[in-house]
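Example record

The entry below shows one chain as it appears in the dataset: sequence first, then structure tokens.
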Amino acid sequence: MNINELFEELQNNILEELNGELILDGNCIVWSHDIDREEIIDDIELNEDDDELEYGFIGIDSPEELLLQGYRDDLDVIERHIAKLDDYADWSFSDPEVTDTNISFKIF
């Protein structure tokens, strides 16, 4: 399977399960996820028994933590799908690159 076929396979079968997006870039696939302030606020889950509410503040995961969680979730989905293709050994994954509101990695 070549990179174009893998990209098409991922687009057709797991795109809706992913937090991020996939882009075919030459001889690799780039996965990226960009968050904004509204998404961070939407991810807050309030628990009425939470001690933090009693003291008037809410613990919010940092943008980097949210990005890394999205990365781990999507990487797991992608790896499981590629493993089903019996083509896993043919692909490598770069380490994630994190900026203020974006995370990305490459499949090559």
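Notes for this example: The beta strands are 21-25, 28-34, 97-98, 102-107. The chain has a mean pLDDT of 83.
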